[in-house]
Amino acid sequence: MGKVYFSKNISPEAIWNLYQLVAFDEPGKIGIKLHFGEDGNHNFLEPGLTRLLTRNTKAHFVETNVLYLGKRHETESHLQLAREHGFNFAPLHILDADGEYTEPRQGYKHYQEVRLPLGIKEYDSFIIYSHFKGHIMSGFGGAIKNVGMGMASIPGKMAQHASRIPLIKGERCINCGICLQSCPGDAITLEPVKINYHTCIGCGKCIGVCPQRVFNIPWSSTSNHVFQERLVEYAAMIAENRNMVFINVIDRVSASCDCDSGAPAPFLNNVGILASRDMLGIDKASLDLVNSLTSEEDSFLTHSHTSGQHQLKYAAATGLGSLEYELIEQG
Ligand code: SF4
Ligand code: SF4
Asked: Residue 188: CB within 6 Å of ligand 2?
């Protein structure tokens, strides 16, 4: 049974106090994995909450670029947005700024490898600092999602979100040739634009470079259950042999995630902070708190129209942690 520490006080001091209860014995260089908030999103966590934590641990803020187009797709504009959102008091590191690599894995249903940002190799330990909120495909996003999706490279995100190959809207193509130069699989031909499905490696680069938005992520090709299983497996594969502790903040809980520039207003506020060494236990405890405070059996099924229960069950089956936890409230 995992221990989950809980404080109703959401403050920099409470975060620092809870962290010390789960802290690493020999942390080395620490990355705080968090979310800088999408351009236009108003629900992401207030940066100042991590001020004491970053000052006392000398940790860097770490994040990865996202799959879809926007400021967080490219390193420079992503860093600029982070600073605009107030993450300007600790070093910032976009982990896939210099590319990605693959590590082999065994014993998983969906994958035999995990695709990771190169920068992950620079850190000895990670504080997984997650805003607990809704998500249209995973039901909720907490520690598991922050690791599984948030620490994967763009091809790793592509592998979880969709079938491997981008969709094409060929009528938009103006034959500029930009995609040909950036395709590492030499998989694109023009007039008309086509992808060779045998040589495409699913890297998603064409999605980002095409000025006409010809290439698209085939979101609907993946059911929510399969998506949640892939997310869990990625989280487990990334966590293998890595030092991680987990902090979840339950505040500004919206039906949609911080990647959504038009996320609806929160349906729950000011619940508290949790800390644990158990990635599954902290998400289960967070979900139980949300459900108990909204008096709903499955709050995210109500608000986000997707249940995250399969995420938890599959995480337990994968050995990610324990569904049983001891909630220890701190003053
Ligand atoms: S980058 Fe887009 S518009 Fe240009 S050739 Fe490729 S598919 Fe066509
Ligand atoms: S996903 Fe990558 S490999 Fe496949 S066509 Fe696009 S750029 Fe080429």
From this structure: yes
Condensed to tens digits (0 to 9), the pLDDT of residues 128-137 reads: 999 999 998 8
**pTM of this structure:** 0.85
**CATH dotted code for 2-159+222-329:** 3.40.50.11440
Enumerate the domain spans of the chain: 2-159+222-329, 163-216
185 CA distance to ligand 1 middle (Å):
16
> DSSP secondary structure string, 140-174?
EESHHHHHHTTTS-HHHHHHHHS-SS-EE-GGG--
Instruction: Quick: pLDDT tens for 191-210.
Output: 999 998 777 877 777 887 89
Which residue(s) pair with 100 in the sheet? 117
Model pLDDT for residues 264-294, shown as the tens digit of each residue: 899 999 999 999 999 999 999 999 999 999 9
Relative to the alpha carbon of 171, which ligand is closest? 1
* CATH architecture assigned to 163-216: 2-Layer Sandwich (3.30)
Three-state DSSP string of 197-251: CCCCCCCCHHHHHCCCCCEECCHHHCCHHHHHHHHHHHHHHHHCCCEEEEEEEEC
Q: Which residues line ligand 1 (CB under 6 A)?
A: 173-179, 190, 193, 210, 212, 214
